[in-house]
Amino acid sequence: MWEMLELFYVTKPLAHRQFLNQQLYSLRMMESKTISEKLTKFNKILDDLENIEVNIEDEDKTILLSCALPRSFGFFNDTMIYGKEGTIIFEEVQAALRTKSKDMRSKVGKVQV
User: What is the distance between the alpha carbons of residues 111 and 17, in angstroms, rounded to a whole number?
Assistant: First the structure.
């Protein structure tokens, strides 16, 4: 009986970890969502992984985020790859994305007026 209980409780976290990793690595953000919605979903997956003690380095988080971004943010990926020297800080990348998104929305608003 103990073996069955041990097997159940040992494999369940493994399955959950694999499920969350699959969500993270296969995440592709849709153009129709705001950057805030996209980042919220991405951060939720990261938080869920951290809750089960899966740690992901900032640089890896940044790479995964840049791979998940829609095509309209291609310029941002190029900037991150070629425009930054040293260490990439995940929070700075998120802040830059939010700022760039606001700039893009304000330009669209000015054109429509």
Answer: 46
Q: Tokens at residue 104, please?
A: 């893009």
Amino acid at 18: Q
Residues ≥6 apart with Cβ < 8 Å to 79: none
Is 39 in contact with 98 (CB distance < 8 Å)?
yes
62-95 burial code (b ≥16 CB/10 A, e <16): bbbbbebbeeebeebeeebeeeeeeebebeebbe
Each residue's pLDDT expressed in tens, for the chain with a length of 113 residues = 667 655 555 556 788 889 899 999 999 988 888 888 989 999 999 999 998 888 999 889 988 998 898 888 877 777 776 766 777 788 988 998 888 877 777 766 554 43
- What's the CA gap between 52 and 107, in Å, rounded? 41
